Automatic annotation (TrEMBL):
Required co-factors: FAD
Cofactor info, note text: Binds 1 FAD per dimer.
GO biological process: fatty acid beta-oxidation using acyl-CoA dehydrogenase
Domain Electron transfer flavoprotein alpha/beta-subunit N-terminal span(s) in chain numbering: 5-191
Protein name: Electron transfer flavoprotein subunit alpha/FixB family protein
The organism's place on the tree of life at top rank: Bacteria
Family (UniProt): Belongs to the ETF alpha-subunit/FixB family.
PANTHER family named in the record: ELECTRON TRANSFER FLAVOPROTEIN ALPHA, ELECTRON TRANSFER FLAVOPROTEIN SUBUNIT ALPHA, MITOCHONDRIAL
Any Pfam family hit: ETF
Keyword rRNA processing among UniProt keywords: no
Length: 321
């Protein structure tokens, strides 16, 4: 049976997030000929309507209230709750981003909906939708399905192929009633200079305690720049003060699924693997041949990262730049 699917899309730094395109592609599959609707919150976001239509959105609920200019839990939860009540979708999808993680449980609780978070795969079996999500810090996967009611799920970025399909889009202005917002965002301060978003990066060069200092990250930054990637880190490197916690990947950091993950001077603790073991190709550079990271690596280089990384940068620069 066809379904009505609502995707809460996200705009960051003026750009539609890749995970929103991915969610629309999943939505089209789940709708099975039914309705694919998108929602965008924030003034000026109507500029992204055409792009949403390029990924199969047939309707866009556009809430351009000033109160939605930046994410606040109160304003966004009120807006999405009201929208879901009005649209009555069978399935609600959003990215498992910082916003999605914060917003989805609030809205699910208000509407008494079940919620499945951090999904890495979505399939259907007859009328049932099966969601796959990692458990035990990524050591195992579980498949879950709802027995009834509207389905709310957050999708892990970089796990679903965004498929283009142009549709005719109808835009509906949506004016939620927003009141009693308890937070005011005065300023958003960026901690990382890199323009590439870690959670959506296709290539990540990551450093661990083996980089030995903040300056030790410089060769990794150069490699990332040549490859058009982002720089990440282990908690060991963050705890040692070599880099910002915003770069931390792992169980208590960001979960990433890049095409290529280059781990430099990272031992491969289970808590780190929880954040990156789903990368498509893993390259490990470590001077200890017994380091556990080599057990999950597709390619391992046993050596000193301060010798190996500059050689890689030079080699890629010759080919790519
Ligand atoms: P180390 O384990 O010290 O490894 C450094 C590696 O660098 C070694 O393998 C060494 O051989 C290599 N090396 C040294 N010098 C060189 C060189 N010149 N060239 C090449 N290799 C070199 N960790 C995370 O990363 N992310 C998390 O989210 C996270 N969450 C945690 C949550 C909890 C509840 C707990 C208890 C721990 C968590 N940790 C997390 C910490 C985790 O257990 C490890 O302590 C941490 O990942 C180790 O970081 P590391 O690999 O950089 O450092």
């Amino acid at each position: 049976m066809s379904k009505k699917v609502l995707v809460l899309a996200e705009v960051k730094d003026g750009k539609l997030r890749q995970v929103s395109r991915e969610a629309l592609s999943v939505a089209r599959r789940l709708a099975a000929g039914g309705e694919v609707a998108a929602a965008l919150f924030g003034p000026g976001n109507g500029a992204h309507a055409e792009e949403l239509a390029g990924y199969g959105a047939q309707k866009l609920y556009l809430a351009e209230a000033e109160a939605l200019a930046v994410y606040t839990p109160d304003a966004y939860a009120q807006a999405l709750t009201q929208l879901v009540r009005e649209v009555q979708p069978d399935v609600i999808l959003t990215g498992h981003t910082a916003m999605g993680r914060d917003l989805a449980p609030r809205v699910a609780a208000r509407l008494q909906l079940g919620l499945i978070t951090d999904c890495t795969a979505v399939e259907t079996s007859g009328e049932t939708i099966l969601f796959t999500r990692p458990i035990y810090a990524g050591k195992a996967f579980q498949k879950k399905a709802f027995l009834e009611g509207p389905v709310f799920a957050t999708l892990r970025p970089n796990n679903f192929a965004p498929e283009e399909q142009r549709t005719v889009l109808d835009v509906f202005p949506f004016r939620p009633e927003i009141k009693d917002v308890r937070t005011i965002v005065r300023e958003v301060v960026r901690k990382t200079a890199s323009g590439v978003d870690l959670s959506e990066a296709k290539i990540i060069v990551s450093g661990g305690r083996g980089v030995k200092s903040a300056d030790g990250f410089q060769p990794l930054k150069e490699l990332a720049e040549v490859l058009g990637g982002a720089v990440g880190a282990s908690r060991g490197a963050c705890d040692a003060g070599y880099c910002e916690y915003a770069l931390q990947i792992g169980q208590t950091g960001k979960v990433v699924t890049p095409d290529l993950y280059i781990a430099c001077g990272i031992s491969g603790a289970i808590q780190h693997l929880a954040g990156m073991s789903n990368a498509k190709v893993i390259v490990a550079i470590n001077k200890d041949p017994e380091a556990p990271i080599f057990q999950v690596a597709d390619y391992g280089i046993v050596g000193d990262l301060f010798e190996v990384v500059p050689l890689l940068t030079e080699a890629f620069r010759r080919v790519l730049v």
